[in-house]
Amino acid sequence: MSGEGYATPQPHSRSRPTVIEVAVLGHALSFWVDRGVFSSQHLDPGTEILLAALPPVAGRAVLDMGAGWGAIGLSLSRLGRAGRVVLIDVNERAVTLVRETARQWGISADVRLADGYQGLAEDERFDLIVTNPPVRSGKGTYYPWVEQASAHLAKGGSFWAVIRTKQGAASLARHMQQHLDRCRRVARQSGYEVWVGDRREAP
Question: What is the reported pTM?
Answer without folding.
Answer: 0.94
